[in-house]
Amino acid sequence: LIKNKNIALSRDKLLSDIVLGTMNSADAVQKATELHINLIARYYIVLISEIHSEQTDSNSLLSAKSRLSSFVAREQACTGFFISPYRFVCILKSSSQETLEDDAYSLADSIQHEISKNTDFFVTTAIGSSADRTAFIAHSYSDAEFILKLCPFSGKNRIVGMADVQKTEKEKLSLPSNNDPLVERLKFASESEIDQIITQYINLLGG
Q1: What's the angle, vertex CA 129, arms to CA 70 and CA 141, rounded to 5?
Q2: Nearest to 46 by CA among 132, 129, 134, 168
Q3: Angle made by CA atoms 183, 159, 82, in degrees to the nearest 5
Q4: Where are the alpha helices (DSSP H) in the chain?
Q5: How crowded is the C-beta side of 121, counted as CA atoms within 13 Å?
Q6: Angstrom distances, CA of residue 47 to CA of 6, 103, 172, 189
Q7: Distances (CA, A) of 198 to 9, 74, 118, 132
């Protein structure tokens, strides 16, 4: 039992290091292999699901988290873990960039269902940008974090991706307004330029 717990802790620590970008990709893949985590894929995308609830029933939360962990463990294309008590992270792998985003939304919907089933919990899931190497998984996580900051909890389940952020009316983005140069750039940017501008803003925030 103690051995299994130590393995679980090592696994979560490694995955945290990967999404936070504190470990180089070669070491990450090697250590993941040692822990029987398959990180080999052509493309990746990170989902962050934040659980919200007004109730304080810890048993209900533990039950919901257990259901979610069991569900994700059955999904071969997904590696999931709790990076904090109310924040669940999924690294979704795919061989096709074309289907990656649709797969991510489908997974987010399933996560929402598992957490909300027979509970008063709500889930906000942010879907980061796609990555084509393990070294960029941290970028996808950073993008998902940025989306969560733009989309605070609104009292209902919500799934938001980078494409949704880009489609949002530019002047309504939760960024500094009025004469802020970033907002001015977003107002006059073309669709193809918005992603680049948002990425630059993330970098400015230290993402």
Answers
A1: 55
A2: 129
A3: 105
A4: 2-20, 25-34, 58-73, 97-116, 137-150, 162-167, 181-188, 191-204
A5: 29
A6: 25, 11, 23, 27
A7: 34, 34, 37, 19
Per-residue pLDDT of the chain (207 residues), as tens digits, is 666 778 889 999 999 999 999 998 889 989 999 999 988 899 999 999 999 877 667 788 888 888 888 999 898 899 999 999 889 999 999 999 999 999 999 999 999 988 887 778 889 999 999 999 999 999 999 999 999 988 877 788 999 998 777 766 444 545 555 555 566 566 666 666 677 777 776 666 554
| Distances, alpha carbon 79 to alpha carbons 19, 167, 168, in Å | 12, 29, 30
